[in-house]
Design brief:
It is a multi-pass membrane protein. This protein is mainly alpha-helical. A two-stranded antiparallel ribbon has the order 1-2. The longest helix is centred in the middle third of the chain and has 31 residues. It has one domain: Membrane associated eicosanoid/glutathione metabolism-like domain (Four Helix Bundle (Hemerythrin (Met), subunit A)). It has four helices and two strands; from the N terminus they run E-H-H-H-H-E.
Length: about 150
């Protein structure tokens, strides 16, 4: 049995914020479908004038969808030992995805790569998860002993 610290609530709220992010990105694609007249089941736009912008919006949402599973896993596991740090990394990642969603609509190619700092946040979450795994296996002592306890 695992006992969580009270601070794990931050991790839970960060996970909920990621659901809001996905809803926001889906809504953005829905609005772009209306704006650029791309009807379902058509996946991408072939319009020479506006198709590129719609396709970038769609790809941004797809990239976030591909990364949400590793994000949620590392957030939840890394948050066992480091709830505040994991939540901070998680919120940074979420904000970077929102920045990326706005930047992908820009005509300036330099702005289209904004939001890439979210990869640093994923690396931080990965390292938090590794530390939690080492503590669970007993390979190292917890940095913060009262964060969570294991009972057999």
């Amino acid at each position: 049995m695992v006992t969580f610290s009270k601070e794990y609530g931050y991790v839970v709220f960060t996970g909920c914020a990621s659901l809001v992010l996905m809803k926001y990105l889906s809504h953005k694609v829905f609005k772009a479908r209306e704006q650029y007249n791309v009807q379902l089941p058509q996946m991408c736009s072939v319009n020479a004038e506006t198709g590129d912008i719609f396709n970038r919006i769609l790809v941004n949402r797809q990239n976030t969808t591909e990364k949400i599973a590793p994000f949620l896993f590392t957030l939840s596991i890394g948050g066992l030992q480091h709830p505040r740090l994991a939540s901070a990394f998680g919120m940074f990642w979420i904000v970077s995805r929102v920045v990326s969603a706005h930047a992908c609509c820009s005509e300036d190619p330099a702005q289209q790569h904004r939001g890439r700092l979210g990869e640093v946040a994923l690396l931080g979450l990965f390292l938090c998860s590794l530390d939690s795994g080492k503590v669970i296996l007993g390979w190292s002592r917890p940095c913060f002993p009262r964060r969570f306890t294991l009972r057999e």
